[in-house]
UniProtKB/TrEMBL annotation:
Signal peptide: none annotated. The keyword Repeat does not apply. The chain crosses the membrane at residues 7-27, 33-56, 68-87, 107-126, 133-157, 177-199. This is Integral membrane protein. It comes from Lactobacillus gasseri. It comes from the Bacteria.
Amino acid sequence: MKKEKITTIIMLIILLVIEAISVFRMIGGHQPIAATAHTLIGVAFLLCGIYALKVANKPDNNPMDIRASFVYPMIMANLFMLIVIAIHDMDHMRQAMEWGYVFTPQLLMVNLIVYIPNTLSFILIAKRKFAGIWASIISGVLIAGAFLKLHLLGATIKVWGPWNRSFFALHVDSLSWWILAFTAIFGVLLSMYSCYILGREVQRRDQLK
């Protein structure tokens, strides 16, 4: 448990470092609104991470709670998903700077939505809530499906600025394609792992009846 907690802290630090790099890149690109948005995202991650670490160590008193042995692995899985999403976001910053695009407040607000599912998932998991498993299952396939749909087929609702067009139309480089592929693959893997945990928990609950 101690090693898992340390690993979780390291992953949280990596996520915060990525957001800090994003902030400085946006400052360097003379995009103060985008820099402010990613500062707020970083602060939110810090506060949510501290809260999750605080509540994750409660004892196994309620048999309906998720088992302690599953808590940190699932927190780490969701944190890794957030790290992948943040890297995907950094790639969009790279593209925007190459194209001379300035992020609009509307796009930044919509973009915040992609961080919510996995953040909610790891908080629920930290609180040992069974709903956290379902949230992880849904968030993994949701992120994978949404990102693939947007970047392969283009946007249905035109709120994504230049990314309303598909990666094919934008002629993005191989790095962007690899990041997209890894994002989608890990989203599916997160859902599969969460389904495995769900099965284990359902089996345990059935044995308690």
